[in-house]
């Protein structure tokens, strides 16, 4: 028999039963006519279940208040079962307490408690998808072939989709149902010690090397990079987290202690994560820069389905995408009757004039001729150059373009690569050759170019299809 307590009122009881299905959250079936079990738990055990449930509820509320207030800036560092809504089930048995967190929906989460005349040895496998086991004798215990969760690592060819198994491991946790002899348990208000505490996330640390996909086209300088990668796998279980406690005196479970536990747990979780990240970041100081540049390029990619002005404003905020080596930049600078989108100054007073067109524009008509938007952009460049050539001193002194030549470099960004055929690419090359120092790029070309610059400085930005944080090792001394 189980008692269902909603998220608003601990004292609200409903009779029913908990149904356990592997790989799924616990299901509570209300049954007002439910009879007590043949082996009814003692009144002390039932009172303990109610007391633990009240304390866990206070703990959950304290965590929520901290993450929405005092510690909102570290919310992302908290374990998922603490920062996300969860249904919580407290099971008190004869020699311990099981607390299970299942994914829930905001505003409708439930806290359920049950007192069961059984032991951790009997109950833990059932409530953990056969992951947790508390045998009486660990030395001779065999959990059996069906125990635990299988995790299979695959090597995937992203060109063909073919996969090849690398290794398979079975995750089973075998623990003692009692505190080891000689271990001192701090008195209340210290948090009760856990026999086992685990989440459904498996943290992975891997090492390897990034090598060019086509070594022949990568030049004769070694571009391989050794790395350490950190990632996570979500286990295919029904729960978000599990905690198992030994049976302690009731005074340990006091709702007034819960805020202290909540704050301690959150700070400890943040400290563990930051310590691990600090250790890995010491290997590769460019992690932050690589992550930031990747986010910038991904945001630009998302804007490419919108109007030109959106892209213009984004590039204004991130001029390094257009001209990574700029030392000064101007937006909407007037040159005679025309207004530039951007002007960049690089070292040694080399300048770049930039014309931005919509990413939605096609570059060529069906008959192969340049579309009006491309022709307009080229004419803009020509008009700017004519004005600079005719008014060079004025441009240098009054507009502040110190040292600009009469023939600066120029760039047009327009359209998407997916709209270009091989013939269109050859025509672009011909058009560029007709105007000295002109380059025409699609937005996809621009992103690829910026990504290449960033990767030359900071290392590869990501692994296709992988949710990993990658740390690149420095080259070995004397490496070519």
Short description:
The protein is an alpha+beta fold and 480 residues long. Helix content is 30%, strand content 25%.
Question: pLDDT average, as an integer?
Answer: 88
Secondary structure: helix percent: 25-40%
Strand fraction: 15-25%
Which geometry do the CA atoms define?
elongated
How far is it from the N-terminal to the C-terminal residue, by CA? Answer: 70 Å
Number of strands: 22
**Helix vs. strand class:** alpha+beta
Outline the structure in words.
By secondary structure, the chain is of the alpha+beta class. The chain has two domains: 181 residues, no CATH class; 170 residues, Restriction Endonuclease. Helix content is 30%, strand content 25%. It contains ten helices and 22 strands. The strands form six sheets. Strands 3-2-1-6-4-5-14-11 form an eight-stranded mixed β-sheet, with helices on both faces. Strands 15-18-19-20-21 form a five-stranded mixed β-sheet. Strands 12-13-22 form a three-stranded antiparallel β-sheet, with no helix packed on it. The longest helix has 26 residues. The termini are far apart.
